[in-house]
Amino acid sequence: FRPMKHLWILALLLFSSPIWGQMENGDDGRLPCSRCNPYRFCNCSHSGFTHVPMVTDQALSLDLSFNNITLVTQNDLLEHSKLRVLDLHGNRLAVIHPSAFDALWSLEELDLSDNQLKTLNYEWFKKLEVLQQLNLLNNPYSCLGSPPLFLGLVRLRKLMFGGQDLKELNREDLKGVTHLDELTVQANNLARYDSGTFGGLWPLGHATLSLYGPFSTNTTLAEVLLLDVCYPETKLTLVDLHLNHYVSTQPLRKIIKRIRDLSLRNFSLSDEATVSLLTLIDGVPLRSLKIVGLTLTGEGRWVRANRTELRNMDEFFVSDVTILDILKFAMTSEVQFLLQNQRKLSIINSKMFLLSCYLTKMMVNVQYLDVSDNLLTDLTISYMLCGNEETLEELRVLNISGNPLKSLSTMSRLVTKLTKLTHLDISRTSYSSMPPSCSWPASLRYINISRAKLTTITPCLPKSLEVLDMSYNNLKEFVLELPILRELHLSGNKFLRLPAGGYYPNLQTLKIQSNTLNVFSLSDLQSYRRLENLEAGHNKFVCSCGFVTFLRSLLAGSRGVKITDGDQSYVCDSPLNLQGDAVDRVTLPIIQCHTVLFVSVSCGVALFLGMLVSVLLWRCHAFWYLKMSWAWLKAKRDYQRHRRQREIEGTGALVSFDAFISYSERDASWVENFLVPELEEPSDSTDLASPLTLCLHKRDFLPGHWIMDNIMSSIERSHHTVFVLSQNFIQSDWCRYELDFSHFWLFEARGDAAILILLEPLSKDDIPKRFCKLRKLMSSTTYLEWPQDEERRPEFWRSLRNALRTDD
Ligand SMILES: *[C@@H]1O[C@H](CO)[C@@H](O)[C@H](O)[C@H]1NC(C)=O
Ligand SMILES: *[C@@H]1O[C@H](CO)[C@@H](O)[C@H](O)[C@H]1NC(C)=O
Ligand SMILES: *[C@@H]1O[C@H](CO)[C@@H](O)[C@H](O)[C@H]1NC(C)=O
Ligand SMILES: *[C@@H]1O[C@H](CO)[C@@H](O)[C@H](O)[C@H]1NC(C)=O
Ligand SMILES: *[C@@H]1O[C@H](CO)[C@@H](O)[C@H](O)[C@H]1NC(C)=O
Ligand SMILES: *[C@@H]1O[C@H](CO)[C@@H](O)[C@H](O)[C@H]1NC(C)=O
Ligand SMILES: *[C@@H]1O[C@H](CO)[C@@H](O)[C@H](O)[C@H]1NC(C)=O
């Protein structure tokens, strides 16, 4: 037992370490993925994640496809209760924890296809009550397992499962699933099927089954399975069938009588199987048969099937037909009986080079004929349409797209007799020129000549057209009157400007993408009277201001025309600095875009600012200050000049007055009636009262001199300056203020002898701030107050005289 014990420990160590490692990675080592768009779709595909990445719990849709994720742990998706879509397609998932999806209450779509899941666990889906779509395709499980996987999925509408390893389907496997819109089962190697497994699926919209193995090895199984899903209302698609003999067609024997709509994909048939199948479908109620990817392995010996009648078949569609042995293949029987009842017939991409007139004459009911992507030429088309003879009289739609046709006039001549033809698709042909005139059936409304090689258009095009597709040619111009045209496709040509709209009064849709348009304008659009939809992206736009503004208004939908190809396709090609920028994002300089507006607005602003400044200056008496400063400067200069002159001449200052009297005009009466008489002609003849000489501007200024100079010289020639202050002085007399202002400046220069007389009580604060000199003077110099009381006036005069006498 001892060695055993050691082995146990060793095993534990060996196995636990990678598990721990993974746990660590799983919890902490999870990388974030933040590639989420505004619709909360997080695209974390193709990113090499080995663990479920950390994604915002607000995500609605999470794409983890094509990574290398190997496991989903219990905690990986814990926060994603809002998630609707989870895609784990194309990983290497081998392990999913039973409760990994438990938190995904809102999950509607789950894709686990193309992984390595060997077993499926019903616990995964147990809580996914709103799941509508589940894809389990291509995993290596051999059975679905029990208990039934889908039991709780009551909302399931789309179910896909199976793969190369699916071996058995048991009766209980689809328990709980009923109403399905789509069922896809890959069961190419199915070996066991319990009858009734799919029997409970009703209604079933569309069943797609790959049953290669059962059809070739156990046809009973295939038949039983098919019987379970086939109802008249169920569309059946069978994929990857290879029918090589009579027996292999037998599973279809019963169901072909039940179904109405059968599609076959990747389908190969031998001659024997073809005959057998044709016999089987004789007279069945099948309405639509579509075969995509048909390989004929035989030689075309179908003679025994000449009775087949498909009276009920409305539509026969076959594309991508390959005949393996084309040299030996020769249909020894005519198959016209197959083609005489359908209304819709398509034989596409099948290297067909001829459809004989004999056959088309049989197709008396056909209204829709599509022979696109074959090898029909002008000549064989001529055979097909029987030259000048009547054929295909009921034909409405003819699609010859993708054939090597060269002559448009031949085509027009041939189809003229198809009097009910409304749609003609001759796109992807080799037409390189258009004849000057053509004849067409009067009923023709739609022509598609896109991807040909036309360089010009002519009146060949019929006036009856409502839809015309001329995209991807080499056109530069389009001038043709088409009065009832509704749709015009001109993308991928070489247009420099929009065609003139006047020719198309009924045009509603214009597509002109990928040309070389530089600009288009409102008037261009307005020339189309009925235009509603425009696609003009991917052109070489020159992003001028006018164009950008116009296009933005167009994109914003304010012009009545809807842009239907997305804002992002409108990109500037020039100027160089804007190349590659979306037109609705570029910012152009305002100067460039609104020159007139810009200039007028800036002028207006400048004017306004100027006015504002002027008003402000005026309010602050700035002009007054300026004028005063100027006057003062001038006076000061003159004064200095005079003084220098006097010094040169040697004459001293000429003092001839005792005082210069500065006063307001309104106080003139006081000066004349009191001051002058009192000082010049004193009434009492005491010592003190000897006469003084006064300088009054009214009386003593020299006429003819500038007033400022007069003041200057008067002050200069006086010992003192007497200011007669009053409210009048301060408030009213502007003219005097000016003068006095300059006195103060000058006064400062002399630095002495100012005498202030207050005619009425004034405090310093009554004086406006701008007379700062006066204010200063008032606070530094004592002043004399004119007493109202007569008794005290002699006292006043005495003080004044004293002041005037106290000489320098
Ligand atoms: C998600 O991204 C990949 C490339 O990372 C891209 O190929 C794929 O088209 C994207 N899927 C969708 C739906 O946009
Ligand atoms: C996944 O891993 C394999 C090898 O481990 C590697 O070759 C492959 O490129 C990886 N795939 C992605 C999408 O990273
Ligand atoms: C064919 O399949 C049926 C149904 O699963 C089965 O009963 C039968 O044994 C199979 N036959 C052969 C030959 O494998
Ligand atoms: C077509 O079916 C055959 C089996 O008949 C299969 O081997 C092949 O891979 C299929 N081809 C395609 C393209 O699915
Ligand atoms: C069908 O072929 C048989 C011979 O195999 C012939 O007798 C019969 O007339 C043919 N019927 C038609 C409608 O061509
Ligand atoms: C004609 O066939 C082409 C290619 O199969 C298809 O794109 C086109 O829509 C068809 N035209 C009409 C009018 O059905
Ligand atoms: C014209 O034909 C082209 C190519 O077959 C096709 O892509 C296009 O959609 C058609 N135009 C119209 C308006 O149907």
TrEMBL record:
Compartment list: Membrane
Residue ranges of domain TIR in the record: 655-804
Molecular function GO labels: transmembrane signaling receptor activity; triacyl lipopeptide binding
Membrane-spanning segments: 596-618
Any GO CC annotation of this UniProt entry: plasma membrane
GO BP annotation list: inflammatory response; innate immune response; toll-like receptor signaling pathway
Source taxon at top rank: Eukaryota
Function: Cooperates with LY96 to mediate the innate immune response to bacterial lipoproteins and other microbial cell wall components. Cooperates with TLR1 or TLR6 to mediate the innate immune response to bacterial lipoproteins or lipopeptides. Acts via MYD88 and TRAF6, leading to NF-kappa-B activation, cytokine secretion and the inflammatory response.
Cystine bridges: 36-42, 357-386, 438-460
Pfam families: LRR_8, TIR
Signal peptide (residue range): 1-21
Gene3D superfamilies, per the entry: Ribonuclease Inhibitor, Toll/interleukin-1 receptor homology (TIR) domain
Membership in a protein family: Belongs to the Toll-like receptor family.
Protein name (Swiss-Prot/TrEMBL): Toll-like receptor 2
Membrane topology per record: Single-pass type I membrane protein
InterPro entries: Leu-rich_rpt, Leu-rich_rpt_typical-subtyp, LRR_dom_sf, TIR_dom, Toll-like_receptor, Toll_tir_struct_dom_sf
Keywords for this protein: Disulfide bond, Glycoprotein, Immunity, Inflammatory response, Innate immunity, Leucine-rich repeat, Membrane, Receptor, Repeat, Signal, Transmembrane, Transmembrane helix
Main location class: membrane
